[in-house]
UniProtKB/TrEMBL annotation, chain A:
This is DNA repair protein RAD51 homolog 2 isoform X3. The lineage of its organism: Eukaryota, Viridiplantae, Streptophyta, Embryophyta, Tracheophyta. GO terms for molecular function: ATP binding; ATP-dependent DNA damage sensor activity; double-stranded DNA binding; four-way junction DNA binding; single-stranded DNA binding. Gene3D superfamilies: P-loop containing nucleotide triphosphate hydrolases. The keyword Nucleotide-binding applies. InterPro entries: AAA+_ATPase, DNA_recomb/repair_RecA-like, P-loop_NTPase, Rad51_C, RAD51B, RecA_ATP-bd. One of its GO terms (cellular component) is Rad51B-Rad51C-Rad51D-XRCC2 complex. One of its GO terms (biological process) is double-strand break repair via homologous recombination. PANTHER family: DNA REPAIR PROTEIN RAD51 HOMOLOG 2. Residues 42-217 form the RecA family profile domain. The keyword ATP-binding applies. Keywords: ATP-binding, Nucleotide-binding.
UniProtKB/TrEMBL annotation, chain B:
Involved in the homologous recombination repair (HRR) pathway of double-stranded DNA breaks arising during DNA replication or induced by DNA-damaging agents. This is DNA repair protein RAD51 homolog 3. PROSITE patterns: RECA_2. It comes from Punica granatum (Pomegranate). It comes from the Eukaryota. GO terms for cellular component: Rad51B-Rad51C-Rad51D-XRCC2 complex; Rad51C-XRCC3 complex; replication fork. Residues 80-269 form the RecA family profile domain. The keyword Phosphoprotein does not apply. The gene is LOC116203474. It is found in: Nucleus. One of its GO terms (biological process) is meiotic DNA recombinase assembly. It holds the Pfam family Rad51. GO terms for molecular function: ATP binding; ATP-dependent DNA damage sensor activity; crossover junction DNA endonuclease activity; four-way junction DNA binding. The keyword Transcription does not apply.
């Protein structure tokens, strides 16, 4: 009141008016359903062609939200991203989104040779047609930002093409590398990403485009696992040796973990690789074994095992056969 | 000075004081034309000032007896409070029957524990018709994170509709048995969703909720998922954040009391240092923990999900297990009955 030199009534009505203008518009759940499921391409999901995973995720990678792929090095995150890029660029007659893909490659892991190989092996009928390989590969735009600020700039530019629906998939590989580039200690901190997380989520929401982000892992000693105050201290009879075991957790902290809508953990255990649906509002906590082949990723078993308890969020890296190493 | 508390602009206050009108009694028997001449303001402005003065000063200064209720009256009111079931009998038990209307409840936990699931379940359960011992109301779902997935709501709504039809005593009301009482689409239609993308939008929306609910009187629950997200980043001025948050909490409490609806706030977990060690707690700091009436923390206990009543004026601090199934939140089934898929 003092600032504007007007009475209380005027201030209240001004606040009401501003609030009304600034509030987002309402939508009923029904109209949301109509929009998403009935009117969007492929029912609002990008199918991954991994039958078990697609069923678990009600159709595939959902539009409009952040999906995170996290796992130790060499497990297959980039392979998954390459496969998704191919799938998004396919014409609709073959079940793709028929659009462009923006691939933000921070760690120089993008291999176009591998991309074409995946495309050719998975969809030979498309890629054998003359000029199709060039057309498909031409739809995938690769950006290589050197720093977080460059990334921000590119995001602003991409925003327009995302909103006009030319770009149908955004892949960021990897988020942790972007964040660690900025901080002095080399440990990705959550605060530096705050604005980017909000921006990505709101862009995803408005453009209804799936955004896939990969994340790294870091070690955490057992001592650091947290409990709430009312849970009391850890029980004294745990073996002392196990206290010094380190286990893997996803990088970027708990705030990032809350921000992503779907978290898929890729891990290796007893020589095989598994993909786990660790966080998803619409799926049970399932684990699928998978392997990498020339046509990308494929599930070894479409019936996932349902994991009970917090184990679904733990990441194991117990060694796997064939480290992936494709030369650029 | 009493004049200083009138809800008028600063220049008018200044004019009043410099003209010698320091107390409200000096204004009460004045005519507008006299005042306008004295202060060199228009007659309408003078009329407004005198109206405010005769009302007894600032509206917040109400006499001690007006507006107060005796505890006995409140007890009767409290017994009529309806509660919204969470679909898990164990959880309802520790909550005294369910989430209570007229109160602000905060539910928090680590990612993946089921906060959004509980939010969606409550948004569906509030719509259970009065015949089936529900409230038959609508829900407002404020989504700040984008976790409101329509497919999941449809799953939960279908399961709820099926259970309702299965348990409904059709013969009592003379209806043919096996009828579906509510279609899943009807459930979806009664959930009004807002997608909030910044903290300014969040504050604006909470400000406008009063008008919105006046227009939609059937709304019986407001769920904010999550209240933390936009306040956890990019806030350089922590004092401002605390002020904004407490302002929001106050408005929500008033809303709950005024319209007798339940307000459920979903909060995230954060690490904080207490007594030299890192511990888990809910985000937004210590000042926020005073803002809500009830506080429920969801956590993992071994392989099972538990809910713990951390803070409540009328409920004991207890834990209860619950499970998240494809039909929504349900009671936890013990290990021996659980089927292993493999």
């Amino acid at each position: 009141m003092e600032l504007l030199d007007v009475g209380l009534k005027e201030v209240s009505s001004a606040i009401d008016h501003i609030s009304k203008m600034a509030s987002p518009p309402p939508q009923t759940g029904l109209s949301l359903m109509e929009q998403h499921i009935h009117h969007e391409q492929l029912g609002g999901h990008l199918p991954t062609r991994l039958k078990g995973l697609d069923e678990a995720l009600c159709g595939g990678i959902p539009f409009g939200v952040l999906t995170e792929l996290v796992g130790p090095a060499g497990i297959g995150k980039t392979q998954f991203c390459l496969k998704l890029s191919v799938l998004a660029s396919l014409p609709s007659s073959f079940g793709g989104l028929d659009g462009q893909v923006v691939y933000i490659d921070v760690e120089f892991k993008f291999s176009s040779k591998r991309l074409i190989e995946i495309g050719a092996k998975s969809f030979p009928q498309v890629f054998s047609m003359k000029g199709m390989a060039q057309e498909m590969a031409g739809r995938i735009l690769v950006l290589r930002p050197h720093s977080l600020s460059e990334f921000t700039e590119s995001l602003q530019q991409i925003k327009v093409s995302l909103l006009t629906q030319q770009v149908k998939l955004l892949v960021i590989d990897s988020m942790a590398a972007l964040a660690s580039g900025e901080s002095e200690q080399g440990v990705p901190t959550q605060n530096s990403l705050g604005w980017h997380i909000s921006f990505l989520k709101s862009v995803a929401e408005f453009s209804r485009v799936p955004i896939v982000v990969t994340n790294q892992v870091r070690s955490q000693s057992s001592d650091e696992t947290c409990l709430y105050t009312f849970q009391g201290g850890r029980s004294k009879d745990t073996n002392d040796a196990s206290r010094y075991d380190s286990h893997l957790v996803a990088a970027l902290g708990i705030h990032w973990a809350h921000s992503v809508t779907i978290r898929l953990i890729l891990e290796s255990k007893s020589g095989s690789r598994f993909i786990k649906v660790a966080k998803s509002p619409m799926s049970p906590p399932l684990v699928f074994p998978f392997h990498i082949s020339s046509s990308g990723i494929s599930l070894l078993d479409d019936h996932g095992v349902e994991l009970v308890g917090p184990d679904i969020s733990r990441i194991h890296n117990q060694g796997h056969s064939e480290i992936i190493n494709f030369c650029r | 000075m009493e004049v200083g508390r009138l809800p008028i602009s600063a220049t008018q206050k200044g004019k009043l004081i410099s003209a010698g009108y320091t107390s409200l009694s000096s204004l009460s028997s004045l005519s507008p034309s006299l005042l306008s001449r004295d202060l060199s303001i228009t007659e309408t402005e003078a009329l407004v000032i005198i109206k405010h003065a005769s009302r007894g000063g600032s509206p917040s200064r109400s006499p001690a007896i007006n507006g107060a209720q005796t505890a006995w009256e409140m007890l009767h009111e409290e017994e009529l409070f309806t509660r919204i079931t969470t679909s898990s009998a164990d959880l309802d038990n520790i909550l005294g029957g369910g989430i209570s209307c007229k109160e602000v409840t905060e539910i928090g936990g680590i990612p993946g524990i089921g906060k959004t699931q509980i939010g969606i379940q409550l948004a569906v359960n509030v719509q259970i018709p009065v015949d089936c011992r529900g409230l038959g109301g609508k829900a407002i779902y404020i989504d700040t994170e984008g976790s409101f997935m329509v497919e999941r709501v449809l799953q939960i709504a279908k399961a709820c509709a099926e259970e309702m039809s299965a348990n409904y005593d059709f013969s009592r009301n003379g209806l043919p048995s096996g009828q579906v009482l509510m279609q899943p689409q009807d459930f979806l239609e009664n959930i009004i969703c807002y997608r909030v993308c910044s903290y300014t939008e969040q504050i604006a929306l909470v400000n406008s909720l009063d008008k919105i609910i006046c227009a939609h009187r059937e709304v019986k629950i407001v769920i904010i998922d999550s209240i933390t997200f936009h306040f956890r980043q990019d806030f350089d001025d922590m004092a401002l954040r605390t002020r904004l948050l407490s302002g929001m909490a106050l408005k929500l409490m008033k809303l709950a009391k005024k319209f007798s609806l339940a307000v459920v706030l979903l909060n995230q977990a954060a690490n904080k240092y207490t007594e030299g060690s890192l511990q888990l707690s809910l985000a937004l700091g210590d000042s926020w923990s005073h803002a809500c009436t009830n506080r429920i923390i969801l956590y993992w206990n071994g392989n099972e999900r538990y809910a713990y009543i951390d803070k409540s004026p009328s409920l004991r601090s207890r834990s209860a297990p619950y499970a998240v199934t494809s039909s929504g939140i349900r009671n936890l089934v013990s290990d021996s009955k659980r089927m292993k898929m493999m």
